[in-house]
UniProtKB/TrEMBL annotation:
Keywords: ATP-binding, Nucleotide-binding
Full protein name: PhoH family protein
Residue ranges of coiled coil: none
Record carries keyword Transmembrane helix: no
Superkingdom as given in the UniProt entry: Bacteria
Biased composition (Low complexity): 72-93
Alphabetized Pfam families for the sequence: PhoH, PIN_4
Start and end residues of each PIN domain: 99-234
UniProt cross-references to Gene3D superfamilies, sorted A to Z: 5'-nuclease, P-loop containing nucleotide triphosphate hydrolases
SUPFAM superfamilies, A to Z: P-loop containing nucleoside triphosphate hydrolases (SSF52540), PIN domain-like (SSF88723)
Region (Disordered): 71-97
Length: 558
């Protein structure tokens, strides 16, 4: 019914004649004709049984709209195909088809929490995967621990009150609210013509057969095999199956760049900052408060440098970021002989940045990345010896590394823990020989008087296998070859730090020897990304090799 006109005066009442006239103007139907009938909801087909096919999505019938005609709805945004194990996944592919993920055994052995990383999507586990998990559960290796953890998670899901394996187990039943899909276990034989063309008895081929059978039975669903095994994915694609890598363990995508810890200021930096910059001096350091768009790209403890011909250079570290302003503090020049660290001076800009982090007592965690010959181990050892023997800031140096061989394993190593780790510590011996002789310059009073026995008495070599549960207080801990560590191993080592302990992680992401580990999923990449911007941590990527001209040329051309 159309509304009557408003009253002429404030607080006046409408007369009955006006209301009757408005009622006579109402349409004959007496109803509201412009309300559109609601659209029926579209429900995502659900798996009822591993052996029962999924029904295709029902067509959506539009209810006729009575006049006046409502405006046409806007086109739905095009959804991207989800990555396997991605943190944010759309519910379906761009064609509107839901997805069912079949997990390979190596995914669960790599990350037991992969069961809860697919958000609203359903997961299917073939029976052969459970058999392989059972075969890998014995032992003290990381793979065995992950296998046992996966078995415990599966047991917890199956033990929830009211759980029905035939209909699927709710992944959110154990507290993982982000996983809203279901877990389906193979309860009936799934036969496929694919197995006839593949050798029998191999677990990978049986998993491929299950994927092919599900593809035939589950109409309207994209069945996706998720595997860390490259050959497994290649075989699946050759057979016409969809296969993807497990992506959730990757800190960086292939197109992303690792945080370098340094930033070159633009050539017009001083011109833009000339009107707003503030500067003051405290002790031997000069501070600059800057503003502008460049502040958005800065991180705490990031190194900023300005180099231009004919203008004075600036090397500073970001110490404070507040709103749209940042404070830069000039660095101590470790390239000068008077500031040498155990007789070692910085030979390039990045080494000077690294020394400023290593010698700062307020920095508890330092990561050094770089190719072979950039001086990572030498810088860490020289800084450690100075602060252990000269400054007495730390009690001793503890050095460890991942024992992953480049070639074939040479077998059992006799002796104590430190003697077993000896062959892996060749880099330590080489650098200690250089530091003990004092070839790097004047090593100071301790450098002249100390012997190899005294230096080695303050250096302990520990194996990573016995780190769990320990607490190191007032130690200088060096983790060498950190690129071969998984994120979980990296977390285990870093959390060993007690009061007054400093940890230095070093590695070359171009030399990863651990299977199924890439630059994006390495524990070192994980640590650099997570500690980025922390006020007590810093990172530097060493870019220039200083070992020899032969090593530098080999790193470039080989």
């Amino acid at each position: 019914m159309p509304l009557p006109p408003p009253p002429a005066k404030r607080g006046a009442r409408l007369s009955s004649d006006v209301i009757d006239l408005s009622a006579r103007r109402a349409p004959a139907g007496g109803g509201v004709a412009a309300v559109a009938a609601p659209k029926p909801s579209v429900q995502k087909p659900a798996l009822t049984s591993p052996a029962v096919a999924l029904a295709p999505s029902p067509a959506v019938a539009r209810a006729p709209l009575a006049p006046p005609i409502a405006p046409a709805p806007a086109a739905a945004p095009r959804a991207r195909a989800p990555r396997a194990g991605a943190a944010r996944q759309p519910k379906a592919r761009s064609n509107g088809t839901p997805r069912l993920f079949v997990l390979d055994t190596n995914v669960l052995l790599h990350d037991p929490t992969a069961l809860f990383r697919f958000e609203e999507h359903d997961i299917f586990l073939p029976m052969i995967v459970l058999e392989e998990l059972d075969a890998h559960k014995k032992g003290m290796t990381e793979v065995a621990r992950n296998g046992r953890q996966t078995s415990r998670l599966l047991d917890a899901l199956a033990g929830v009150k009211g759980a029905d394996i035939a209909r699927g187990l709710l992944l959110s039943a154990t507290g993982h609210a982000e996983a809203t899909g279901k877990l389906h276990l193979q309860t009936t034989p799934l036969e496929s013509n694919l197995l006839a063309a593949l050798p029998q008895g191999k677990a990978d081929n049986q998993i491929l057969g299950v994927v092919a059978a599900l593809k035939q039975q589950q109409a309207g669903v994209d069945v996706v095999l998720v595997s860390k095994d490259i050959n497994m994915r290649v075989k699946a694609r050759a057979l016409g199956l969809i296969a993807e890598d497990y992506q959730n363990d990757k800190t960086l995508d292939d197109g992303d760049l690792l945080y370098s810890g340094t930033l070159q200021l633009p050539p017009d930096f001083w011109t833009r900052q000339s009107k707003t910059i503030e500067s003051w001096q405290s002790g031997s350091a000069t501070y600059y408060r800057i503003g502008g768009p460049i502040v958005a790209s800065l991180q705490i403890n990031q190194f900023a440098f300005f180099e231009a011909p004919g203008e004075p250079s600036l090397y500073a570290r970001v110490t404070e970021i507040q709103g749209k302003t940042a404070v830069l503090r000039t660095l101590k020049d470790y390239t000068h002989l008077k500031n040498g660290v155990w007789g070692v001076t910085a030979r390039n800009r990045e080494q000077n940045f690294a020394f400023n982090l290593l010698m700062d007592p307020e920095i508890d965690f330092v990561t050094l990345a770089g190719t072979a010959g950039t001086g990572k181990t030498l810088l860490a050892l020289a800084s450690g010896l100075t602060q252990v023997l000269d400054d007495r800031r730390y009690t001793e140096i503890i050095m460890t590394r991942a024992t992953v061989s480049v070639g074939e394993d040479i077998g059992f190593l006799p002796g104590t823990e430190e003697e077993k780790m000896g062959p892996w510590m060749g880099a330590l011996d080489d650098n200690l020989e250089f530091l003990a002789k004092g070839d790097g310059g004047n090593a100071g009073e301790w450098g002249r008087a100390a012997t190899n026995e005294l230096i080695r008495s303050r250096i302990k070599i520990k194996s990573m296998n016995f780190m769990r549960g320990r607490t190191f207080m007032n130690k200088w801990i060096i983790i060498d070859e950190a690129q071969n560590l998984t994120p979980k191993q990296m977390k285990t080592l870093i959390t060993r730090a007690g009061p007054g302990t400093k940890i230095i992680c070093m590695g070359n992401l171009a030399q990863i020897d651990t299977p199924y580990l890439t630059e994006g999923s390495s524990g070192m990449t994980f640590a650099v990304d997570r500690f980025k911007g922390w006020s007590h941590g810093g990172h530097v990527t060493l870019a220039r090799g200083e070992r020899s001209r032969l090593a530098d040329f080999a790193s470039e051309v080989l």
